[in-house]
Write a structure and sequence with these properties.
alpha/beta, 8-stranded mixed β-sheet, 18 helices, 40% helix, binds flavin-adenine dinucleotide, binds iron/sulfur cluster
Length: 400
Amino acid sequence: MEEVKAKMNSKYYLAWAKDEGIRKKGANGGFVTATLVSALENDFIDVALVVRKKSVYEGIPVLTSDAEVVKECAGSLHGAPINLTKYVVEHAAKKRIGLPTKPCDARGIIEQAKRRQVSLENVFMIGLNCGATLHPLRMREIASYYALDPDSVVREEIKEGKIFLVSEEEGEEKEKWMKIDELEAKGYGRRDACKSCITKIPTMADLACGIWGSNDEKKTFVEVCSEKGGAIFENAVDSGYVEIEEAPEKGIETRQKKEAGMQKRAASWKEKMDEVSGLSRSERFEFYVDALKNCIHCGACKAVCPVCACEEDAKCLEMNDERDSYAISMYNVLRIFHLMDSCIHCGQCEDVCPVDIPLTLIQRRFSERMQHRLRYTPGMDVMEKPPLYETELRWSAKAE
Ligand SMILES: Cc1cc2nc3c(=O)[nH]c(=O)nc-3n(C[C@H](O)[C@H](O)[C@H](O)COP(=O)(O)OP(=O)(O)OC[C@H]3O[C@@H](n4cnc5c(N)ncnc54)[C@H](O)[C@@H]3O)c2cc1C
Ligand code: SF4
Ligand code: SF4
Ligand code: SF4
């Protein structure tokens, strides 16, 4: 034990599960799974929230106190573009919870904590670096483009800038891959929100884990980002669930370079995908009207939005009267205004919109400039109050 303690004076580690089964099933050595299992078994957390694979096109969030279920859910699912924030708010209000968080999950949870919907003291965010998720339908299109039957694809992987798909037909496995850049040049690939996402390493979480900077695909590179992160990490090491070594200097550099490269690509995608900036004022107006007039007021974009904490008496719903004959409904106008300081550009709203409104672009167009002007980046620091936090009184009254 003394030897392990002596090793734990760094911020950066390579870490992996001691248990061979977890190490094999885990995306990069099972550190995240082993840490959640040790936290459950040592009563560090009450429940874990993990994602269970249903198929390569579907991952289901599972809230569990059963370590065996956590083990079954090891691995990375790129075709499950879910955000876990609302599950934490809904199901774990009074429980200590540990969960893997992509940067957009962690940012959503932090914004909800600012709105007093969740107490961060009870939440252990084991951050995952994130290059992208893919919309399941887009993943199926890639399968067809690879000349595979989408229904026979059994495995997917994103590695070294390539998307790999493996199909199984009549007992025979076929593997196909292509570089993401080439696929995207042909119109296939990641979600628009992911192409333009610049938050790649979740240092706002308690730990930040990923393959970048690791010299072995069965060892996770781990950054300890908070005291809570240090505690859950130490618990996993001390109780013998994970093994660690200090990360080499070169690995730290490589990881930074990978992130910088991804951020540069994201900036260029953002420019390419912005079909509004080249338009005149009246053309822009027309673009917004044309897109938003198709809204059928299903409310799905509000329900999934990880930073929206309003309930049924939300002003976007209360003030919207469908008998009004404006081309754009008050619902959409109010949502745009309300999220100007807090939208994290995660694209969840667009994913669920049944009439395919380009909501990521629209929300980004309005919120990005405002956030820049307010010098505020949502979801990064729980101590930073949203500048347009006008409902403080109502939430304070409700807070325990
Ligand atoms: C969508 C995605 C993209 C990623 N992109 C990168 C990248 O570009 N660069 C990089 O360095 N690392 C990336 N990672 C992280 C990497 O794949 C591993 O998760 C990380 O190295 C930890 O490995 P592990 O073996 O310790 O995790 P594991 O022990 O395998 O645990 C992973 C945990 O993540 C959960 N999970 C699986 N899919 C999702 C999902 N879609 N959303 C939320 N939780 C999920 C699983 O249920 C499991 O609990 C990505 C991960 C995901 C999920
Ligand atoms: S928006 Fe960013 S963090 Fe979220 S899934 Fe996409 S790339 Fe990952
Ligand atoms: S408005 Fe859309 S992009 Fe912005 S935080 Fe909500 S779901 Fe994400
Ligand atoms: S998801 Fe689309 S159709 Fe439904 S309310 Fe939102 S913008 Fe309108």
